[in-house]
Write a structure and sequence with these properties.
Number of domains: 1
Number of helices: 5
CATH architecture: Sandwich
Number of strands: 23
Largest sheet: 6 strands, antiparallel
Helix content: 10-25%
Oligomer: single chain
Strand order of the largest sheet: 5-6-8-18-12-16
Mean pLDDT: 97
Order of helices and strands: EHEEEEHEEHEEEEEEEEEEEEHEEEEH
Bound molecules: fe (ii) ion
CATH superfamily: Jelly Rolls
Low-confidence stretches: none
Strand content: 25-35%
CATH class: Mainly Beta
Radius of gyration: 17 Å
CATH topology: Jelly Rolls
Structural class: mainly beta
Length: about 260
């Protein structure tokens, strides 16, 4: 049975938990969902031979109301939506492989991303450096309505922690690329989130700071309002999201993190 997410997301979208798919209303333009499978994340697992659900999540990139598409292209914004499976991969909770975003051309500033969670519970894992020495790593518990902005340049991934599918939307820069290779070469993220809730360091790293658990509201939210869907927040005031295609606008926002 589909669960309506219109109030939660500000878009005409519902989640089909049985199919791990999203269903969109007639005025929403969207691509076919792309399925990500266990093979896609193997290189980043605590145990690359581990078994787990074959279908990890379904992602829809470039979703919007048909009337909004031109404005999003003009502003260089992209909206995506995802629904996750649940379960374990070896000792780890089911998760994405992790990536960081490319640099804005001509700068050394990497693009950010704004997450908004709709159903289920999980964690956003944030890692400051994409190298063998990691000085900051944050684990952010998330549930319906929570929002998280990825600090510029940080590695990030999503962990699904409950039996209800974790579904969420996200804004990012249309020109940005997702970079996976460096994290794969490191053998995954600096920590692994296990089924029992323990978070263990990745022994393939040289030096890893202890993970810090941080509530989503304790992270910088810039001018993104917490109490309304990020899609509606964009429609009301598109400029709130200019920092996504223009990371130079918020280069210092995470200095106090
Ligand atoms: Fe991302």
């Amino acid at each position: 049975m589909n669960r309506d997410l219109q109030t939660m997301s500000g878009l005409d979208v519902a989640v089909d938990a049985d199919e791990l798919a999203l269903a969109f209303g007639p005025d929403v333009v969207h691509p076919e969902g792309e399925r990500r499978s266990l093979g896609d994340v193997r290189a980043t697992l605590e145990d690359p031979e581990a078994s787990g659900p074959e279908h990890l999540y379904t992602i829809y990139m470039d979703v919007c109301r048909a009337a909004d598409h031109g404005a999003l292209v003009d502003q260089s914004l992209l909206y995506g939506a995802v629904v996750y499976n649940h379960g374990l991969i070896g000792r780890e909770r089911l998760r994405s492989q992790g990536h960081r975003h490319s640099c804005k051309p001509g700068t050394d500033l990497r693009y950010s991303e704004v997450y908004e969670f709709w159903t289920g519970h999980g964690h956003v894992y944030l890692q400051q450096e994409c190298g063998p020495v990691v000085t900051r790593a944050l684990l952010v518990p998330v549930g319906p309505g929570d929002k998280v902005i990825v600090p510029l340049g940080w590695v990030h991934l999503t962990v699904a922690s409950t039996d209800e599918p974790l579904a969420f939307g996200a804004w990012c820069a249309r020109e940005g690329k997702l970079e996976y290779d460096e994290l794969r070469a490191l053998g995954g993220p600096a920590h692994f989130v296990l089924a029992n809730g323990d978070v263990v360091p990745n022994p393939r790293y040289t030096q890893v700071a202890d993970v810090e658990v941080v509530a989503p509201r304790d992270l910088p939210l810039l001018d993104v309002p917490y109490e309304q869907p990020i899609y509606r927040a964009w429609r009301e005031e598109p400029g709130r999201f200019d920092f996504l295609p223009q990371p130079e606008l918020v280069a210092c926002a995470w200095e106090e993190l």
